[in-house]
Give the backbone structure.
Amino acid sequence: MKKQILGLLVGGFTLAMTASPAMAASVSVEIEGQAKILAPTIVTTPSSVNKDGTNSCDGNTAMGALDAATGGNWSGSYSLNSYSVETVLGESHPFGTGAYWTFYVNGNYANAGPCGIPVQDNDKILFYAGDNAFVDGQGGFDEPVLLTAPATAKPGVPFTVTARNAVTTFDSSYTGTTHFEPAAGATVQGGTATVTTGADGSAQVTVPSGPYALVVTNANRAPGRISGCATTGTDGACGSTQLICPAGSNACGTPPPAPCFTTGSDGFCGSPDKVVANAAITAVTEGKKYKKGAGPRELSGKVANDGSGIADVRLRLTRTDGRKCATYDGKTEKFRTLKKCGAAHGVWFSVGAKQEFTYLLPSKLGRGRYVLDVEVTDKAGNTTKSLARGTSRVVFFVA
């Protein structure tokens, strides 16, 4: 974003349209100040926000997300149907003093105040101390750099992360449109070593066992953060338990010819199967934006080994386009309208019982915001209980 344009839009931060009341959403909120930060945290938006005791705005907005994430620890004035944020977590940036508090949703520039930007499940909201071109040398961050990485990993095994720069351009009415470019030369920290991204914005990261947090920085851009957990599944990390059955022992039933590894409840080594294998979507990646006419048609993924074997793999594909919501029906092979929006109201359809599954849609996906989920049922009757963003749940967009 050119600083001259950004400076012109500082006063426009408070302009907003009144958001229609909606159901509460579960969203991720990250705050990047010059002195204070709040790593990405999942919150549920409130029903409304009434900071000054007089003026209210819908809580299912960027304003409600900030209010929930900070526990109300922010302040600002109300005008033109929205609050303007001036202080967050005790860090103040009033307009005209240098930096100012601005926000992006899913990496995109907000063309209204926080009361005027509705949010929905799984959205990622970033509030940060932005650069004010009116006061040279006293500004904050430029537009953000975003980081995409798997939510889970194996200790000591490299995996790919991708950094992208948000770049916003404006039309004659100062309406901003954001696109994303590879963040070459960005720095990623938090693994076993600090790495630098290549020309395509990607880099290989290795993490130790247990929870990890990665942060990407690129020049003066607002940093991007992401967290996950690394485990072999039998090392005691990330909630797993470890049980090793050495060769020749009968602790796992019949003495195996080689070491036998089990959590004690995964169906291996003679143990009862009480958990279902994890699944990951591979055909589409988290947050990807497809161009018009280039939407994906093939849906595919993988399922890990399961102690009792796989009985069924099901997919659920939902689409939001403006205020219209639909779900893909595997029986009719068509999208049908949903009365209530949200992935939870979508329809599951089976794609077989293979570890590597593929489903070909009748045609390429058209315009909209899509949520693709995968659910596994094993032969012991265990079914996927929760979905992990970036692995068993992927959100993507088609222009």
The two ends are 21 Å apart (CA to CA). Confidence is low (pLDDT under 50) at residues 1-20, 251-257.
